[in-house]
Amino acid sequence: MLRNSQHSYGLAARVFHWLSAIAVLTALFCVEINGFWPRGSAERMQLLLWHIDAGLLTALLLVPRLLWRLGNRPPVITPLPSPLVQRLAHAGHWTLYALMLLLPLFGVLTQQAGGKPVALFGIAMPAFIAPAPGLRHLWREIHGLLGNLLLIVLAIHVAAAVWHHRFLRDDTLTRLIGPQR
Ligand code: HEM
Ligand code: HEM
Fold it and tell me: Quick one: pLDDT at residue 81?
């Protein structure tokens, strides 16, 4: 079933979740390992291009994903967590959505402020801002801070999924990966 049911995420939400997860984790992986190569090396430049491809894909996926999300209520968790836990989960999910938009945005600003063209799989994007070398550092800093925030929220997100599954033994995770009910 494409749409969410009362107890399970539907196929569309599952595909969106895991494609976004792959794109975000690829972006993080490419930038986290690039320190193994010296600045300016071909390997490091290639990793940055993959980082940018994966980051832009994340933003592109977010548009249909959010539209779909707004018309599809998430399935309920059984047994239902306390209202406080539900509110925290909700806040965490919307923080992740915001970061999947803001990180690519500040990434593009960083590159374009430095006068560097941005391309998705080799197809150049229009320049949204004029080069502004003075601002490049600021956009880069914000991008890096948001990246660190994402790492923290993601660690909590994955730990919460495992906690619900292993210790609380509710259906938080199986709603997303198990058979549809
Ligand atoms: C191994 C990695 C991951 C696991 C096990 C996982 C697990 C889950 C689970 C169980 C839910 C449902 C939670 C609920 O409805 O209360 C969920 C929702 C969500 N996940 Fe993940 N996730 C992973 C990676 C990611 C990544 C990398 C992102 C993106 C940054 C992400 C973003 C989201 C968002 C935004 C939701 C909310 C969906 C909604 O609006 O209903 N997840 N995830
Ligand atoms: C899911 C989207 C993205 C995530 C999670 C992400 C995350 C990160 C992280 C964690 C860093 C390292 C920060 C640090 O070391 O302080 C970084 C660096 C960087 N990101 Fe992104 N980013 C994303 C998208 C983009 C996009 C779309 C662009 C450009 C269009 C971009 C351009 C850059 C640049 C130029 C750097 C600096 C790389 C270096 O110093 O070698 N990012 N990003």
Answer: 97
First to last CA, the chain: 10
pTM above 0.90, yes or no: yes
3-class SS of residue 39: coil
How do the domains of the chain map onto residue ranges? 11-177
Mean pLDDT, the chain, whole residue set: 97
Class of domain 11-177: mainly alpha
Question: What is d(CA 76, CA 6) in angstroms, rounded to the nearest whole number?
Answer: 6
- C-beta of 168 in contact with ligand 1 (< 6 A): no
- Arithmetic mean of pLDDT, 24-52: 97
Q: How far is CA 43 from the centre of its chain?
A: 24
* 176 CB within 6 A, ligand 1: yes
CA torsion sign, 33 to 39 to 44 to 50?
positive
Cβ of residue 74 lying under 6 Å from some atom of ligand 1: yes
Rg over CA atoms, the chain: 18
Q: Is the dihedral of CA 110, 113, 119, 125 positive or negative?
A: positive
**CA pair distance 171, 77, nearest whole angstrom:** 6
